[in-house]
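Lab notebook, bench 4. Still working through the backlog of constructs that have no structural model yet. Next entry is a single chain of 328 residues. Request: give me the structure tokens for it.
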Amino acid sequence: MTTRRQFIEITAALGASLAVSPGRALGAMAPQKVSRTRLVLGCAVRATVLGEPRAAGEACDFALDAVTRVDDELSLFLPGSALSRLNREGSTDQAPESLRICLAHALEMARASEGAFDPTVEPLLQLVARSFRERGGPPSEDELASARAKVGFTQVWMSGSRVRLPKDVALTLNAIAKGYAMDEARAALQAHGASEVLVAASGDMAVGQGRWNLAMQNPLRPDELLERPPFHPPPGGMGASGGYMNSFTLDRSWHHILDPRTGHSPTHFAGVVVSASSAIEADALGTATLVLPEKDAVALADARGAALFAVRKDGSEVHSSRARAAGL
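Model written out:
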């Protein structure tokens, strides 16, 4: 699982530049590209709209407010968030909508990926981070085995707004909440009359109408972009995952993405990009496909109607059956 990803670059804000095209836009004046940025979700989130400047700016602010609300409810770094309270108390009868939606989607993705994606991986993430921070090296296999005993999505019970966790089980929604927040922000923009929109938080994006030019960062040489033409994503969501942004070792054999079933970081892919029908789906698939073996990753993307582009550690590329149609 992952906490931060950035494999897609937007050329005006993380990667996207907007080519003005006909379509519905805010206001009656000649439409312009308007962006607002806010530090939230642990990164810079940018909402971009084609529209009349003042109305578009107000819509962007409203969209970023929606992102902030999601962060307030699902952040592991805020002691008062609904997720932090759930982990601390082990149960809740009043889970907010954001937690219910993200947890339900996370549990469904865990089943579909046979545990490669698992929202209960938090004890393993904490163990590995603490081991490198305090000892400068990975935990022992015995320590990993002890932490793995606390991991398992089938232990989570959820019914409506009620959630129960067994003792020592903790959730992280970091690999899905950002995508959900992007979808919420796009919905807020569209509620304000905008159709040509893009909301981006690091490598996760909600894409509306309009022609957006996206470029990919090279996961093997993060200071460079991949040598390929920009691509134009269809409306929906984009998700990216890679271990190079937060590695514990120079060879990137240990990084902030773990296979919940082993406690080790996957090493076959340097990075992946997923195009899906929504940002929450793309976010979760970005993590699941990075963890899964190559054949299984492609099969999962195909089964869920998503497009997958991956770069192996040797620099060669992998394309799923829908990748070309999505421009990847």
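Notes after review: The domain at 82-164 is CATH 1.10.3980.10 (T-fold). DSSP finds eight helices and 14 strands in the chain. Flag for follow-up if needed.
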